[in-house]
Design a protein that fits this description.
Radius of gyration of chain A: 15 Å
Helix content of chain C: 40-55%
Structural class of chain A: mainly alpha
Largest sheet of chain C: 8 strands, parallel, barrel
Distance between the termini of chain C: 13 Å
Structural class of chain C: alpha/beta
Order of helices and strands of chain C: HEHEHEHEHEHEHHEHHHEH
Helix content of chain A: 40-55%
Order of helices and strands of chain A: HEHEHH
Largest interface: B-C, 32 and 34 residues
Strand content of chain C: 5-15%
Oligomer: heterotrimer
Number of helices of chain C: 12
Strand order of the largest sheet of chain A: 1-2
Number of strands of chain C: 8
Radius of gyration of chain C: 19 Å
Number of domains of chain C: 1
Distance between the termini of chain A: 30 Å
Chains: A mainly alpha (106), B alpha/beta (222), C alpha/beta (310)
Number of strands of chain A: 2
CATH class of chain C: Alpha Beta
Strand order of the largest sheet of chain C: 1-2-3-4-5-6-7-8
Shape of chain A: globular
Number of domains of chain A: 1
Chain lengths: 106, 222, 310
């Protein structure tokens, strides 16, 4: 999902993704201090932290959501983060909600 | 405004557990300003609750509604249609709204989703602070605009006490000593001599101590 | 000699122009009155009256009124300390009458430490009236024989009314106006917070004298002996409203541990001796918390013994 600034990503967007069965969500924002809109990426970080807290409390797992910062010219960094996130989610396993939804459909 | 904070989600989960269909109602006024019970918070809480129950293998239906305010029957009536199917109402309004909801929808269990704290204002986003205790007899003209009832931990009328240290209250370094503030302000206003006037004993009968209160304005009643 | 308003021995000592000496005892955290009798027994001959603290630091103890009654039973003159934290105006007036029924003739009117500091931080607090208004209430009951509500009192209390003063507390600019307020409210004697910064205290007294307050109220200078350098440091850094100059701490630390208690007592005696020369100081309030056995030594070395027969 592409946005003009990670500041546009709201808490509910992240939660809904998990509600619908996503295994993980990661938010990629500009380096801190380099936000074109001043502090959009800082707001995003706070929301990601809040999402992680909620996901822990409801038993889905806060490790499934993460935020990374990089500049648009850092392609290798992008790849590294993507790989790292994939590894992380693999370790978490599938979203229990996805399994629950499957069970219900069956 | 009335300042509230969200209840810990574990507590909310515990109270809504018995129900399969919940009407989650937010309020567009005070609790929206203090980001505890407005439309956004309703959405987030609904999502979180759904995920919790799905994870438990239960499908709990959570309908989301936010009305202008819950302390007015006129707005509460807008929910009449949504009420039929609901097993319970989870209200994110302040304690007033929750009670009005319970009175209006007498047969429905009504649960609070926030802890109502005090009457206060915003210092900055995310920080709200108490300013009024509703004593019913405002003395702010005498104390330079600083309230000894709501800002002094001992509600002293002839303060400060001996615990005031460097402008802070004895109970916390984060709490300003109300009487230091009053003295500073009286000084600023050139009224420091007023400090020596002995404040009379307070009539607390217009406060909580006198019993639950009602304001009736005959001039305004229909 | 000024005309006496009450049968209080403390009032009499002051009225006759003597330096008064008071001390204090904390009641036990239980119901054994022997604890009070023992402490009072150690100091009774060296003081004119003994204060009994009122759930000090919000730690629940045997109540001040009961302990004062035990003192009366031993023939010792009590000073009933009363805080407004725990009682509304009904209980306050009631307790004043209770004290009067046992002929307790001295009272110290205080706000009280916030309950957060004690063993019941989750409890309510009252503060129906504040300490200034308490002074006014006692004077009303005594001088007009009336309850706050206006009704007449049968056998009004005859209480010598005192208040506390802290020359070292903030805000600095109202320290003397605050004393003036207490005097206007009706305070007849003052016991100050314990003094270590003599210069600051004397400068406060100068301002007090400038306003003639020293003639309207009897100021008893508070003193507390340090038991150790650790205690000096603790009081300097951790107790609100306490002013302990660096030199005093240095003096305590500069002495080997086994001699520190004696050094503390020496400082206390020197303080009294210096303040005897301070115009307006009408006596001393020796607070030797949990060290009551040293009060006789302090009083004797400071030339305050024997106590006058009044």
């Amino acid at each position: 999902m592409a946005v003009p600034c990670t500041g546009k990503v709201d808490l509910i967007h992240m939660l809904r993704a998990f509600e619908k069965g996503a295994d993980g969500v990661y938010v990629l924002g500009c380096l801190e201090g380099e936000c074109r809109y001043e502090n959009g990426n800082l707001r995003a970080r706070k929301r990601v932290e809040k999402a992680a807290e909620i996901l822990d409390k409801v038993g889905i797992g806060g490790e499934r959501v993460a935020m990374y910062n990089l500049s648009s010219s850092e392609a290798p960094q992008f790849v590294r983060f993507a790989t790292e996130m994939t590894e992380r989610i693999r370790r978490c396993g599938p979203n229990p909600i996805k399994l629950a939804m499957k069970k219900e459909a069956a | 405004m009335i300042v509230a904070k969200p209840k810990p989600i574990e507590e909310v989960i515990d109270s809504v557990k018995p129900y399969d269909r919940i009407l989650l109602v937010g309020c567009n006024e005070c609790v929206t300003v203090c980001e505890a019970g407005g439309r956004k918070e309703v959405g987030v809480l609904a999502s979180a609750l759904r995920m919790f129950f799905m994870n438990q293998g239960r499908t709990v239906r959570i309908d989301e509604r936010t009305i202008e305010r819950q302390c007015d029957r006129e707005y509460l009536e807008e929910l009449r249609g949504d009420m039929d199917g609901a097993d319970a109402v989870l209200s994110l309004a302040c304690g007033v709204g929750v009670q009005f909801m319970a009175e209006t929808y007498f047969q429905k269990p009504v649960l609070p989703g926030v802890d109502t704290c005090f009457m206060g204002g915003s210092l900055e986003r995310g920080v709200w602070t108490e300013r009024c205790q509703g004593c019913g007899q405002c003395v702010l003209a005498v104390t330079g605009g600083i309230c000894p009832v709501s800002r002094c931990a001992k509600r002293l009328f002839n303060g400060p006490c001996g615990g005031s240290t460097k402008g802070k209250c004895e109970i916390s370094k984060d709490l300003d000593c109300a009487w230091q503030l009053i003295v500073d302000r009286l000084k600023e206003l050139g009224r420091l001599d007023d400090y020596e006037k002995l404040a009379p004993i307070k009539d607390w009968s217009t406060e909580r101590a006198g019993g639950p209160r009602t304001v009736t304005r005959e001039d305004v009643r229909q | 000699m000024t005309e006496l308003k009450t049968p209080s021995k403390l009032e009499k000592v002051l009225a006759q122009g003597h330096l008064a000496v008071t001390s204090e005892c904390g009641p036990p955290r239980g119901s054994d009155p022997e604890a009070i009798r023992k402490k009072a027994g150690m100091i009774r001959d060296h003081v004119d009256a003994i204060n009994i603290t009122d759930n000090q630091t919000s730690v629940t103890r045997l109540c001040s009124l009961a302990a004062c009654i035990h003192l009366k039973g031993m023939g010792v003159e009590p000073v009933l300390q009363m805080v407004v934290r725990d009682r509304n105006r009904i209980a306050i007036q009631s307790d004043i009458l209770g004290a009067a029924s046992f002929d307790i003739h001295n009272m110290l009117c205080l706000s009280g430490d916030h309950q957060q500091f004690g063993d019941n931080p989750k409890g309510q607090n009252v503060f129906d009236i504040d300490s200034m208004q308490l002074i006014q209430t006692v004077r009303l009951m005594r001088d007009e024989g009336k309850f706050l509500g206006g009704d007449a009192i049968d056998r009004p209390p005859s209480v010598f009314v005192g208040a506390a003063a802290n020359p070292f507390a903030d805000p600095f600019e109202i320290r003397v106006p605050r004393l003036a307020k207490k005097v206007a409210a009706g305070a007849e004697f003052i016991q100050t917070q314990c003094i270590y910064n003599l210069d600051k205290f004397e400068s406060w007294m100068e301002q007090v004298r400038d306003r003639g307050l020293h003639e309207k109220v009897a100021i008893l200078a508070g003193v507390t002996p340090f038991k150790s350098a650790g205690m000096a440091k603790y009081m300097k850094n951790r107790v609100p409203g306490m002013d302990v100059p660096d030199e005093v701490v240095k003096r305590m630390s500069g002495v080997p541990k086994e001699n520190q208690a004696q050094e503390g007592l020496d400082i206390c005696v020197e303080t009294i001796q210096r303040l005897k020369e301070c115009e307006g100081v009408r006596g001393f309030h020796i607070m030797a918390i949990e060290w009551e056995e040293k009060v006789p030594e302090i009083a004797e070395r400071a030339g305050l013994y024997p106590r006058p027969e009044v």
